[in-house]
Specification:
116 residues, alpha+beta, 5-stranded antiparallel beta sheet, two-stranded antiparallel ribbon
Amino acid sequence: MVNSGASNPEECEFVVTSGSGVEDVSCFGSMLAFDEDGLGTVLSTYRALRCDEQIPVSVLPIVNTGFGDYVCLDYRLDHVPTVAYFAHGKSGEDSLLTLATTFTAFLDLLTVPENE
């Protein structure tokens, strides 16, 4: 809401840890719009990723990292979603990594980039 859908350079980095324990840094990028129409919306991105069966039905992309990856709400286990990282270069279950148990916990992971 503060940045009108644009990235927030003051708090854009977070750590992604793979299943094997390897850590990488990703960027927040920008929130996807919640409008029904147009490109760059939650719905259009979900449809595009589902068309190629890249993400499961119960995973909803909400943040574009700017690198083809997405931060998603993951409803596969419960009606209260966890937050997952969708890595576009991976396939199947390897493409989704859990970031946090809640969206609030995910926000706590955001840090100020060191080069700012």
